[in-house]
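Tokens as discussed.
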């Protein structure tokens, strides 16, 4: 019970997302093996192939490793594990891009925790290359960039650089509002799609 209480923030959500993606991969693969199954995607839906499922498995394992390092206070170790993930050769698949976007977001959060603001920003920018469309993953990356700019504003204020701190704070607010707008767009689009299916 104590270990679950100390689990890094966001771990449960991340595991749930990776699990859901993997379950979808297995389900669609089964559907395409047996056309008699009901409730399968139509012919236009492409099965998730074995390389993609293998990549998802690698991602789950490496996130678990990072969890272990982070739970014992080894921040550099957790960062190194996630660097392995984001530099792993990935198949060309939307699911792989989602995993990479999420991994870069977590990497940015860990770098932020270690006060490496420039490294955190670089991780966010790399993640955005995998999340170009308005999705949860893009919104989360922009949210993390807002947190980076908030930390930058605080550091500048502590250094007595009031003007620069105010500018960074304004940038942080703008990014956080952008993240809110984008996530609302994601929700509204999902609701509209659900309504059209009725």
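Sequence:
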């Amino acid at each position: 019970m104590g270990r679950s209480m100390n689990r890094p923030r966001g771990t449960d959500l991340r595991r749930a997302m990776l699990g859901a993606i993997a379950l979808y991969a297995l389900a669609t693969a089964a559907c395409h093996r047996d056309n008699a199954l009901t409730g399968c995607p139509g012919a236009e839906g492409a099965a998730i192939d074995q390389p993609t499922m293998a990549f998802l498995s690698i991602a789950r394992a490496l996130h678990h490793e990072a969890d272990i390092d982070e739970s014992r206070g080894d921040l550099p170790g957790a960062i190194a594990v996630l660097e392995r993930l984001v530099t792993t050769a990935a198949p060309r698949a939307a699911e792989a891009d989602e995993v990479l976007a999420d991994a870069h977001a977590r990497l940015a959060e860990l770098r932020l925790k270690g006060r490496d603001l420039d490294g955190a920003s670089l991780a966010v920018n790399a993640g955005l290359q995998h999340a170009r469309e308005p999705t949860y993953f893009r919104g989360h990356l922009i949210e993390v960039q807002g947190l980076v700019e908030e930390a930058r504003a605080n550091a500048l204020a502590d250094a007595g650089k009031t003007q620069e701190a105010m500018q960074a704070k304004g940038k942080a607010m703008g990014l956080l509002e952008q993240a809110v707008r984008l996530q609302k767009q994601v929700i509204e689009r999902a609701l509209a799609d659900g309504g059209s299916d009725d």
